[in-house]
Write a structure and sequence with these properties.
single chain; mainly alpha; two-stranded antiparallel ribbon; 3 helices; about 35% helix; globular; Endoribo_LPSP/chorism_mut-like; RidA family protein; RutC-like_sf
Length: about 110
């Protein structure tokens, strides 16, 4: 990941710190799940460099300009990359976790 971080620095970008959730919030899903050699990432939003939720928040065209939405999308992408730095438990998926997505046609079977 050092090469990726040096490239981001060269582009003037910085990965945020891990998200800072309020003390009473417990997430019941993982941000990243590993299946084989793929990482499935979900549930991300724009983060400020310190890990807090980036502002402004709202709907494009009503609460946010197109430029603000573009910036939020860039921050969301950086948050997704940063979540790959956090140690991810490598547990084998349950049989039901593998079969359900295949039955629904959402992902293709591993090759």
């Amino acid at each position: 990941m050092a090469h990726i971080e040096s490239r981001l620095t060269a582009l003037g970008l910085q990965l945020p710190q891990p998200i800072k959730l309020p003390p009473d919030v417990v997430l019941r899903f993982p941000w990243v799940r590993i299946h084989g050699n793929r990482a499935f990432i979900s549930g991300h939003g724009a983060l400020a460099p310190d890990g807090s939720i980036a502002t402004p928040l709202g709907k494009v065209g009503r609460d946010l300009s197109l430029e603000e939405a573009y910036h939020a999308a860039k921050l969301t992408g950086l948050a997704m990359l940063a979540s790959l730095k956090v140690p991810i438990p490598m547990k084998p998926p349950l049989c039901s976790e593998m079969i359900a997505p295949l039955d629904s046609g959402m992902i293709s079977p591993p090759v």
